[in-house]
Amino acid sequence: MKTVIIGGHRIAYYLARMMISKGSHVYLINKDPDVCRELARRLSAIVIQGDGSKKEILDQIELSPEDIVVVLTNTDKDNLIISQMVRKYYGVEKIVTMVNDPDNVEIFRKLGVKAAISPTNLLITTIQSLLFSEEIENLLLMEEGKVVLLRLEIPETSPSAYKSLKEIPLPSESILGGIVRKDDFIIPRGDTQLLPGDRIFVICEPSVQTRVIKILVGE
User: Fold this and answer.
1) How are strands ordered across the β-sheet holding 68-71?
2) Gap between the Cα atoms of 43 and 57, Å rounded
3) Sorted alphabetically, which Gene3D superfamilies does this protein's record hold (predicted)?
4) Tens of pLDDT along 172-214?
5) Domain 3-124 = CATH 3.40.50.1110
6) How far is CA 202 from the centre of its chain?
7) How many CB atoms lie within 10 A of CB 167?
C-alpha cells in the first residue's frame, strides 16, 4: 500500500513522517522545487516535482485501488479535480481532501469526495467547544456539588432520537445547553431536533442525573 500526498508543505511533511513510521511507502507531489528539495532531504520518501492535477504526473506513481491519497493544495478547484481523477482513473477510494473554503465542504461531498476536511471548520468547532466548556466550568466552580455537567452522545436507539426538545420530557432541574453535530455547534431551542451521533451538553442537579441519562441515551 502506498500513501500519496499531493500539495502541502508542513502538513505534508509531518503526515509523511508519520506514515513512514507506520511502514507505508510514501510519495509526495509538489509544484514548488524548493519544497520538493526540502522534503527529499528530510524524508525517506519519493518526491516528484509537478502538478498533481495532471494525469501524466499521477501515472508515474502507478496508483492502485488499495492506496491512500491525501490532497492538500491551496486551491479547492485543484483539490476537487485531483480527488475525482484518482478515483476515476485509478479506482482509489481512500481519498482525504483538504477544503480551504468551508462553504465548499458540502459541494465536495455531493460530488463524491466523502472525506472532505475543512481546517477552518475544525478550528471553529474546537473554539466554540472550548468557550462553552469554559463557561460551564466556571459555573461548576461556583456551584460545586450543586450541579452536574453531562457530556452525552445520542445513540440510534435513544428514546429521544429524532424528537424536538419540546417533545422530550426532561426534568425542570436540567438544561440542555449545547449540541455538537459534525462540524457545527448548535444552541438548542424548543424546535431543535436531536439526531443520532449528536454530542450534547446537559447541566442538571445530581438528583435527576440518572433520569436525564435514561431519557436521552436510554437504558
Assistant:
1) 46-49, 25-30, 2-6, 68-71, 94-98, 115-117
2) 20
3) NAD(P)-binding Rossmann-like Domain, Regulator of K+ conductance, C-terminal domain
4) 888 888 898 887 888 888 889 999 999 998 888 888 889 999 9
5) no
6) 23
7) 12
- Spans of all domains in the chain: 3-124, 136-217
Question: Can you give the C-alpha Rg of the chain in angstroms?
Answer: 23
Q: How far apart are CA 176 and CA 162, in angstroms?
A: 16
CA angle 86, 4, 72 (to 5 degrees): 85
SS3 21: helix
What residue type is 131 in one-letter code? L
CA 194 to chain CA mean position, Å = 20
Grid cell listed for 54: 495532471
Output the nine-digit C-alpha cell for 4.
500519496
Note the pLDDT tens digit of each residue in 63-117. 999 999 999 999 999 999 999 999 999 999 999 999 988 889 889 988 888 888 8
pLDDT, tens digit, for every residue of 153-178? Answer: 999 999 999 999 999 999 988 888 88
Query: Cα separation of 157 and 166, whole Å?
Result: 19
**Under 8 Å between Cβ of 104 and 131:** no
Give the CATH superfamily of 136-217.
Answer: Regulator of K+ conductance, C-terminal domain (3.30.70.1450)
